[in-house]
Amino acid sequence: MCECNLDFDPLQQQIRHAVSITDDTARALDELSPHVSAFYRRLSGELVRRLHRADIFARRMRDDMANLIDHLDQQITRGERREIIVDESYVELAYTQVVYTAEAMILRGHMPILRRMYGHLAAIDQIGKAETLALEVRSGRQP
Predict the structure, then answer these.
(1) How many Å is the maximal CA-CA distance in the chain?
(2) Which residues contact 78 (CB under 8 A, 6 or more apart)?
(3) pLDDT digits (tens, 9 = 90+) for 64-107
(4) Which of 15, 30, 63, 112 has its CA 20 to 30 A from that of 96?
(5) pTM of the model
């Protein structure tokens, strides 16, 4: 016997997930703000305002999140270096390890929640497009 959930709505699920992490996302944006340039500080502030107003489903929100995440990735990459660790007990006597500056570590710490929010916003957009396309196909109009 199948226990299928016929009421499952992937769009609603993604919206619920996005809404459930708005406070954590806003907190992360506030905490990383002092560690970015003035432009990205303003962008972070605008994203926080949208999160507090629950105005997160506009395409601009997703695009701004993507822009910020790309910038943070670049900042983190600039703050990393590879160190050679000599270890006589290691088979090859040495190995490399990625080490981050304190600034890059702070930014890295906030990336998971920002990536989760972006993932939910992107999924919401994609599901919306798929639903629009499905309606067009069902109505006999060519997509």
Answers:
(1) 71
(2) 104
(3) 999 999 999 999 999 999 998 888 887 778 888 999 999 999 99
(4) 112
(5) 0.84
